[in-house]
Design a protein that fits this description.
Blueprint lengths: L2 H5 L3 E5 L2 E5 L4 H21 L5 H16 L8 H7 L2 H12 L6 H23 L3 H10 L26
Antiparallel strand pairs: 1-2
Length: about 160
């Protein structure tokens, strides 16, 4: 499975009465996500506590080398791992849907509320094997018909008025 497989067909997401069209990230989106990953790594380095200043300088030099060698590139191992987290998934949604008015806060709320559904939708796009998809849904704790339009267990994409935020 590649990132292209995940994002290759447009998908509509609805949250708080607003519909967002999730589409394949452009080169600009991919670059913005890569820059975000690189900046997060650099922020972690600068927050670190070092017994010697030379250790900090070495860490920064290593980070520069990692950036130059493409460690944080779109589609790379670190990118894929980060996309499988709530914050990583929210960031790419924010980047892709920013022109549709999605904020960072909205993206995080949407992913927190709909994480399993989004991952299941991506998994459905990535595999044509119904048994593999069923196993993925089961691993997420979802029924095998979760993605079916007839499913009675599909989750709402709007927040409950009784939930605490």
């Amino acid at each position: 499975m590649t990132l292209k497989d995940v994002f290759n067909a447009e998908t509509e997401l609805e949250f708080e009465g607003v519909k967002y069209l999730l589409k394949e990230p452009t080169l600009l989106h991919q670059g913005q996500y890569q820059a975000w990953l690189e900046q997060m790594a650099l922020d972690a380095i600068t927050r670190g506590r070092y017994s010697r200043e030379s250790d900090r300088e070495i860490a920064i030099a290593n980070h520069s080398r990692d950036c130059a060698t493409g460690l944080y590139e779109w589609g790379g191992e670190l990118c894929i791992k980060r996309l499988m987290t709530v914050n990583g998934l929210a960031k790419i949604l924010e980047i892709i849907c920013r022109d549709q008015g999605m904020s960072e806060r909205t993206a995080i709320q949407l992913v927190n509320l709909e994480y399993k559904k989004i991952i299941a939708t991506f998994a459905a796009k990535a595999t044509s094997d119904p048994k593999a998809l069923e196993a993925i849904l089961a691993a997420l704790g979802l029924p095998s018909d979760f993605l079916s339009s007839n499913s009675q267990t599909r989750h709402s994409t709007t927040e409950s008025t009784t939930s605490a935020v």
